[in-house]
Specification:
The protein has about 180 residues and is mainly α. The chain has helices at about 1-30, 40-60, 70-95, 125-135, 140-170; strands at about 35, 100-105. Strands 1-2 form a two-stranded antiparallel sheet.
Amino acid sequence: MIWYGLLVAAVAGERVAELVIARRNQRWSTARGAIVAGQGHYPAMVALHTGLLIACPAESWLLDRPFVPALAWPMLAVLVCAQALRWWCIHALGPRWNTRVMVVPGLPLVTSGPYRWRWLRHPNYAAVVAEGAALPLVHTAWVTAALFTSLDAALLTVRVRCENRALAATTGPAPA
């Protein structure tokens, strides 16, 4: 169980690194006249993602969830791939990446890295979904996985609509 706590702590550390990058990128975007949208749902996102990091080890420990290798190893692989995809998104967006919806007017849409796939407009959110399901299931915290996934689906519906509106208003429609 200690190793699972360390895994969750590593993911939490990754979140802190994201927040440091987001703060730096927020200054960059603000200096260029960024438009901020979706402030209302942001606290809910922070709370939900913090709750995931608390609930994963809590459920595993309090409910004495077993370690099931046939589930754990594939979920660990999904988790690692989700992290790789997230950091690829952060790299592709550069200073335009943020945990908040911030769009600098006049900049074209990013079409490099994972954003070149027209069938996946929001690859960062695909990483979020994969991580939210996989991290709890590494140690069979299936209640956390189900609850987080359901709540996150509702929140991402709001977030993606907000982001799409902000992007359309400042950059125009996506290229054909």
